[in-house]
Amino acid sequence: MTVSTLESCSLSDDDDEYDENDFTPTPSTSSCTLKYANREEPWRLNPSHFNGDEYFFQDRDEKHQTDDTGDRSISIERDSYGFKRPTQWVKLIHLHQFDIYYQPILDKQQLKWKKMIQNGWPPVDSIKLKRYARQGIPSEFRGEAWLHYSGAKSKMEANPELYPALVQTAMQMGENNEHAEIIQRDLHRTFPDNLKFACVSHQSSTTTIETENNSKLQSLRRILLAFSLHSPQIGYCQSLNYLAGFFLLFCKTEQEAFWMLVTTVHDYLPENMYDVTMEGANIDQSVLMMLVYEHIPEIWNKISASSGCFWENDNKKGLPPITLVTNHWFLTMFINILPIETVLRIWDCFFVEGYSIMFQTALTIIKMNSEKIATLEDPIEIFQILQNMPRRLIDCHQFMNVRS
Description:
The chain has 18 helices and 4 strands.
């Protein structure tokens, strides 16, 4: 497997010609500055992007909702997808600053994509498509683009009656489906901070969970039950609920979301990624650690059980403990790891360019923290760095331009 070194994607105004500068190599991440928000330090963006009181403007897509305690005096800001703003990781002013910076980029991409697809979707090997996907697929076209380029649409059109039949069988089986109970248990844990998936209410001292009254959660339940029948070698594995839930947010129909899940798991991800053995997930971590050994040897020496080479360490000592963190990155495809907009930008590339994007993203995160990790001796502190820092990477645009 080849994982490219750090590259930058140009934001050229040229819509019609391939610009070789789009793929010009840049220095390694250790010498690059990626702006990410720190709860304790100012978020440094180019001041020319902002004007005075615009720091505090309310994005037109934000929805202000009361919290689930029923206290109407507490306002909760949400993004355009219904998620609570991650103010536990990034100060609200920094989120607003990024909104102001990023909105013109979104507007520009909207116009460019409309022009590109006006006569149909370009082929998947189109250089322009790859460049535009790296710059982000507009929300208006995202679900349809994922469906088309992943191949899920072709599968769905070839098997139009399969999903309804699987759902009918699942409903008839009820609790006889060995996965039904754990799927039901995981429903309310899937994006509880998203308006469309919310099912928990607090009244006085009583907490109530009502998944039956939430149409999105019922769609999620049907998808996961149908998938367990479609792919009995997997059945159900935690993390699949996040993938399916994410697809429900961007696909037009429940059936589209089902086929996106099937296609992603079987055509993109390694075999045995979610089965009982999780062999595919373990292989992924071996590959990632090999890349760390090759590209960031100083970090390998810090995180490995010995100072020996990768293969010696792998055979005798097992994988480094940080794979307990990085394995979760791959299983969830960075959902609940990176900010939502950053995850979306990764997925845009994933369905056009393929699985190598996962390794590029993981290696970028580790490289970005290499100087900090190099100063640490306590493995727990390294864990904390890799668990917490990704949640502050709100500048998805710059992150995608600094890929390893």
